Amino acid sequence: MKDWRLALRTDEWIAHGKVRAREIPGGLEITVDGLTTQGRFYKPLIREFFRTTWRGSRPAFGDFSVSIGMEYTGDPPWLDLDNLAKAILDAIKGYAFHDDAQVSRLLVERRAGERERILIRIEKVSAAPD
After folding, report:
1. pTM of the predicted protein model
2. How many Cα atoms sit within 13 Å of 51 on the Cβ side?
3. Which of 1, 8, 67, 93 has the smallest number of Cβ neighbours within 10 A?
């Protein structure tokens, strides 16, 4: 299994406020700095970034794999990971893919990190050979 943590190189990122994104081969990486216990906070924040700042790839059809990592310092925040996943998927719907029903694999993790942030990796799933 791939490690969901991102190799952060700021020269490749498009940023606005707390949100940064970049295209990767076959997908997209997004980071959101800071944490809150309110999962609904992330949806408007990410959607606003895509609406006003993002000029990269457009939504695609097919199956996708989405990995969401919540890094925290100190004690883990009281945030249900399922609520976080729903808010993130709703936020990127229409920008990374057309509908969250296209997500065929979803990984959501909470782990200690160097700083508080959300890491998101969206990758197109290649079709299985016949």
Report:
1. 0.85
2. 8
3. 1
